[in-house]
Amino acid sequence: PRDSQVPKRVAFIQCVGSRNVASGCRGYGPDAETGSSAGAMDPKAYCSRVCCMITAKQAFMVKEKYPDAEVYVYYIDMRTAGKGFEEFYQRGRHEGIVFLRGKPGEIEEKDDGCLRIVSEDLDSGCILDLSFDMVVLAQGLTPPDGLVEFAQKMNLSRSEDGFLMEGHPKLRPAETAIDGIYLAGCVQFPKDIPDSVAQAGAAAAAAAVMCSKESIEIDPLGPVIDETLCIGCKLCEMLCPYGAIKVELTDKGPKAKSIEVACKGCGVCGASCSTKAITMKHYTDSQLTAQAKAILEVV
Ligand code: SF4
Ligand code: SF4
């Protein structure tokens, strides 16, 4: 506390700014455009996963160092999924930490410097009016500053929570849509140390597989660019989800260039080019017309 004395009554408040869907906010902590954390207290819909156990640990440490201290934890529900987590939480209860189900709406600073919290204990239905020397807020984790800029530079997708998006939530949890870029830890979503280490192991294994190959297979589909038709408008570059097409300055002006090794053959560039400068390999207009005609003949 500000008087630098050992606190006798300490409160921890869980889920501050987290798991709040009432505002309709889907979860951007830092500003979605700039990546600034100035708005990090904005409500977030997601659960940060680590706060319950960090609070349990810190509350336990307060109790261990200052056995006479009264320690309260205000929570919505305790999420203790993990090896030994539930046992640790129960141990805290037995050590005298008071867990109160109910989220305070406001903290009021009194004239004597104490912090007053009025809340409803949802288990007993009672209104509690308690004062503390110190209040610790378990604020949700948010994407780091600069992640927006980094993601734009590396052509990485972000989920609606603002964290980097994995290749597939179940099948490629440590990979991104861009070959050679892998994810580990809270850059993908809040997670604790064991989960971060496990994901880092998966990311390292995936990177090792790629590095051990003597050659890399590339997608047989991809854009063929007619430079005489390309006007260098950069639409294809902006729309390519894999950063596999770039407009470069040539002696004939700005022209689109395909980066074959990064291309996934999705066809977005071909569909978007207004001057029809791009045709997709094996999917030229004449090939598609021939296919359609053949199908219609059979029908
Ligand atoms: S969209 Fe078409 S015209 Fe524009 S840069 Fe790309 S290839 Fe060139
Ligand atoms: S086919 Fe898809 S991945 Fe390949 S350059 Fe075009 S938009 Fe990018």
What does this structure look like?
The chain is an alpha/beta fold and 299 residues long. The protein folds into 3 domains: 9-139, 3-Layer(bba) Sandwich (FAD/NAD(P)-binding domain), CATH 3.50.50.60; 147-212, no CATH class; 223-298, Alpha-Beta Plaits (2-Layer Sandwich). It is built from 7 helices and 11 strands. The strands form 4 sheets. Strands 3-2-1-7 form a 4-stranded parallel β-sheet, with helices on one face. A 3-stranded antiparallel β-sheet has the order 4-5-6, with no helix packed on it. A two-stranded antiparallel sheet has the order 8-11. A hairpin with a 2-residue loop joins strand 9 and strand 10. The protein is elongated. Residues 23-32 and 35-41 have low confidence and may be disordered. The structure holds iron/sulfur cluster (2 copies). The site of one iron/sulfur cluster (SF4) has 15 residues, from helix 5. One iron/sulfur cluster binds next to helix 6.
